[in-house]
Design brief:
11 helices
Length: 327
């Protein structure tokens, strides 16, 4: 009996010690989670999951190299004296050794959210102009230009900014009327309650193509906002961004804040491109440009020719088929 009581006593002591260790472990884990946030820097490296095998990653690495080589062949000179952009679309984070530029309708909202996530997570405040220039000149930094097929981008601009469901849609429509759209607004969608947009894409595209007025930057070439002939070393295409961004950050082993979802934004409007496949994008674009005259299409292509050439995009006037997404 005495032996049994001794065994029971030892067992109780061991269980008590186990509970203390477990509680301590839970407490430490909780404390670790609570420390990660805006008020203190991260204590561990937060890596992008290894989405791709070595061979798969090489496919993306080769594609990045082709895009960069094409751009550099188009540019007579590549200055390194700091990132230039309009509307503060060029962002540089010296502490993260990262710089990028995303023009409006080139996932600028998504990249702006990534920027804010990084500076909040790392509790970064401010840098000097010299530090920004040094980052963009550093061969080891990640310097990204985000681009989009100009004819797809124009559809996206119309779809969002001229939507009756967009909070500022009426403003974009009325301001465009003051710079020539009124002459081309023949379908009068603004007064048609069955239409989701203030103006038809046919009327909108014809206005962009044929009218000489200066227009909102959403409807102008993206290279005006993010000049491409700069010291970028990666080019991401919006059409392939789901794959590109994982490959980029896996290749560079970039520390992405765990609070940020790398999935692309799901925001969209009626007739939006959203997360469509390449085939679906091509068919959607062809259907929208189908009613636009060949004269207007030729003018549009000429207007956005440099956006096409710099990034390997194509557009067939006869078929209205866009291409070059995966180059």
């Amino acid at each position: 009996m005495q032996v049994i009581m001794s065994i029971i006593g030892v067992t109780i002591v061991l269980l008590f010690l186990f509970e203390i260790n477990l509680a301590t472990s839970i407490s430490l884990t909780t404390e670790k989670v609570e420390r990660v946030g805006r008020d203190s820097p991260p204590t561990e490296k937060s890596l992008v999951p290894n989405e791709y095998s070595h061979d798969e990653l090489k496919v993306f690495t080769d594609r990045f190299a082709r895009r960069l080589n094409l751009l550099q062949n188009q540019c007579a000179e590549i200055p390194k004296n700091g990132l230039r952009s309009t509307k503060s679309l060029g962002k540089v984070i010296p502490e993260a050794n990262l710089a990028f530029c995303a023009a409006w309708k080139c996932s600028s909202t998504y990249w702006g959210a990534l920027y804010k996530s990084i500076i909040d997570y790392r509790n970064i405040t401010q840098w000097t102009p010299a530090e920004r220039v040094a980052t963009f000149s550093d061969p080891s930094s990640t310097r990204v230009l985000i681009v989009r097929h100009p004819m797809v981008r124009l559809v996206s601009s119309w779809n969002e900014k001229m939507s009756k469901h967009h909070q500022n849609g009426a403003h974009y429509y009325k301001s465009s009327l003051r710079v020539g759209l009124d002459k081309y607004d023949t379908h009068h969608w603004s007064t048609d309650s069955t239409k989701s947009h203030y103006v038809s894409f046919h009327n909108f595209a014809t206005w962009v193509a044929l009218d000489a007025h200066q227009k909102n930057r959403h409807f102008e070439p993206a290279i005006k906002m993010c000049p491409p002939c700069q010291n970028f070393n990666y080019i991401i295409k919006v059409e392939t961004m789901n794959d590109d961004i994982f490959a980029l950050f896996q290749k560079t082993q970039f520390e992405v804040p765990p609070i940020f979802d790398l999935g692309t934004p799901k925001r969209s409007f009626d007739n939006g491109i959203g997360q469509k496949s390449t085939t679906a994008i091509v068919n959607h674009i062809k259907s929208l440009y189908k009613g636009v005259s060949k004269v207007a299409l030729a003018k549009l292509k000429a207007k956005f020719q440099r956006d096409l050439d710099y990034f390997g995009y194509t557009f067939d006037i006869e078929t209205s088929e866009p291409g070059g997404f995966e180059i």
